[in-house]
Amino acid sequence: MLTIGLLGCGNIGNIIAKNHVGVEIVALFDQMPERAEELGRLCHAKAFGDIEEFLSEDFDLVVEAASVSAAQEYALSVLEHGKDLVVMSVGAFADEYFREEVTRRAAALGRRIHIPSGAIFGLDNLKIGQISGITKLLLRTTKNPRSLNMECTERMLLFSGQANECIKHYPKNTNVSVALELAAGRAVEVELWADPDVDRNVHEIVIEGDFGEATITVRNRPSPDNPSTSYLAALSIITLLKNLSEPMRIGT
Ligand SMILES: NC(=O)C1=CN([C@@H]2O[C@H](COP(=O)(O)OP(=O)(O)OC[C@H]3O[C@@H](n4cnc5c(N)ncnc54)[C@H](O)[C@@H]3O)[C@@H](O)[C@H]2O)C=CC1
Ligand SMILES: O=C([O-])CC(=O)C(=O)O
């Protein structure tokens, strides 16, 4: 069975630990050691307070569910320790230089980096953008101000521009924009809205290209323990882990 180490024992880390299928969690690390220890008691895995010791433990794959800055800080080290990597905080790869460096190291070391679909649907066929023209790619994200850690009394536009800028300002809320960018191989226009009248994390994706047109609207339930993060994101990573050891691959 695939063995994993969880880097980040917050909302997603806890959901993975309680619901994982087809993998064994053996090691845990969090910048707040008490979180790793608490989760360790729950899933009978070893909690580490030191990243070097965590990465030196014997397991196959690191699942990052921490933060964009954690993914940037630890990705190369994970690969150097001979482990594959699942990155939830995909906004880390908005930095092109960093993305290329990590990809180059992974190729040289024979390691793989997996990016889950996270809080959206549609990443699979959006990858056709790498071989065929996509003329428009827009993400319109709307969340309750609570999910954005702010207050407002009416719908307001917080950001309009490119994904690689948006993620710098909203690293806890717009990782999906960078996932879209990586899948399509082109820039994504992003609008981020706060709306006190919505109780979902809503992602509207508009795609136009040689294939035709598609519009996808995902109305996600926020996770109970972290309203910034949609519950779908945690389900997506659990599914990715389950699929890793299955012989048949479904979806592009
Ligand atoms: N790709 C996608 O579609 C989505 C990605 N995300 C991202 O997934 C990540 C995890 O989300 P949640 O579990 O809801 O967040 P959370 O805030 O509930 O948990 C994150 C945990 O990671 C720990 N952490 C943060 N920085 C760290 C560091 N440098 N070193 C060690 N531990 C660190 C925190 O102490 C916390 O326990 C976030 O970056 C979030 O933005 C969330 C939703 C969708
Ligand atoms: O969970 C969501 O709805 C999206 C999210 O926070 C992100 O992309 O960072």
From TrEMBL:
Keyword Ligase (UniProt): no
Catalytic activity: L-aspartate + NAD(+) + H2O = oxaloacetate + NH4(+) + NADH + H(+); L-aspartate + NADP(+) + H2O = oxaloacetate + NH4(+) + NADPH + H(+)
Binding site for NAD(+): 119, 175
Keywords: NAD, NADP, Oxidoreductase, Pyridine nucleotide biosynthesis
Annotated InterPro entries: Asp/hSer_DH_NAD-bd (IPR005106), Asp_DH (IPR002811), Asp_DH_arc (IPR022487), Asp_DH_prok (IPR020626), L-Asp_DH (IPR011182), NAD(P)-bd_dom_sf (IPR036291)
Domain Aspartate dehydrogenase residue range list: 153-238
GO biological process, one term: NAD+ biosynthetic process
Active site: 203
Domain Aspartate/homoserine dehydrogenase NAD-binding: 8-116
GO MF annotation, one: NADP binding
EC number: 1.4.1.21
Role, per record: Specifically catalyzes the NAD or NADP-dependent dehydrogenation of L-aspartate to iminoaspartate.
Any further remark recorded for this protein: The iminoaspartate product is unstable in aqueous solution and can decompose to oxaloacetate and ammonia.
HAMAP family per UniProt: NadX
Family per record: Belongs to the L-aspartate dehydrogenase family.
UniProt-recorded name of the protein: L-aspartate dehydrogenase
Organism: Methanofollis liminatans DSM 4140
Gene that this polypeptide is encoded by: nadX
